[in-house]
Amino acid sequence: MMSTVSGRVAVVTGSNKGIGYFIALQLGLSNLFEHVLLACRDESRAADAVASLQAQLPNKVKVSSASLTLGNTESHRAFAKQMEESFGKVDVLVNNAGFAFKGSDSTPFKEQCTPTLDINFRGTVDLTNRLLPLIEKGTDPRVVNVASMAGRLAQLSPELQSKFSSNDLTMAELESLVDQFETAVHDGTQKDKGWGSSNYGISKLAVIAATKVWAREYANKGTVSINCCCPGYCKTDMTSAKGVRDPADGAKNAVIPATMENPPTGQFFENFKVGQW
Ligand SMILES: NC(=O)c1ccc[n+]([C@@H]2O[C@H](COP(=O)([O-])OP(=O)(O)OC[C@H]3O[C@@H](n4cnc5c(N)ncnc54)[C@H](OP(=O)(O)O)[C@@H]3O)[C@@H](O)[C@H]2O)c1
User: What is the position in ligand 1's atom list of the atom closest to the CA of 123?
Assistant: First the structure.
């Protein structure tokens, strides 16, 4: 049975630990939400995070979790259905869940490509597209995509840079460019073709490009603000705790565009302000 709750709902993916946990905490403390939903694949860690966050937040903010495996379209579908049935809308979506192979991982570079793109880029695009109809029903609705400075345009040849940064780029063209990168990696020709040498970097570069595509689409519709960010190099499991920034500070780079008054759209936030791609 579908019901639309009255208070604002924030959904944070990958929020059982790391930067996402602190994004959820800070959104809960912002006084702007009555529901904070942790979208997590590990149910046990999600339950621990719900209890820990609920203990730190005012009683009027309800924390809960739902199952989500980013990169699994059936899981995206079930998650979107659950959000529709539980809340009837989503006011803010923070796409924080992300994955990087460790430098020490022995999986060959070619075999790291598809899973990295499937989770970080294709998963984020498919999940967001499924949730956007619910986000459009939100109050002051926003999407924040946690990308990375690893997604800098400068890693590409000038020709590829102009394709990714074109103001005419469509989502279908962006997906095709990412497919071309994947093919080049499988052929071993990615460096010759101007792609640089990071699967993770291209996955995050494509998330930044997708942010700008959605922002253009929704600028015409006039409602949803869609931005992205780099949290900075943070001490989390992803970096084996080698980062230089506390994850609570890194989280602010997502929380600022999710909560600020009169947010811009289509921008890349880093170091707590709008930065350059
Ligand atoms: N740490 C940094 O220095 C840094 C810098 C730039 C950008 N980022 C980005 O910041 C975001 C958070 O990273 P973090 O450093 O906090 O990493 P983390 O501690 O490894 O946390 C990653 C979170 O994403 C979840 N996740 C990963 N793959 C998933 C999947 N397929 N489905 C559902 N959930 C998934 C993890 O869930 P499980 O517990 O189930 O694994 C975990 O909750 C990522 O997007 C990352 O790329 C981090």
Answer: 31
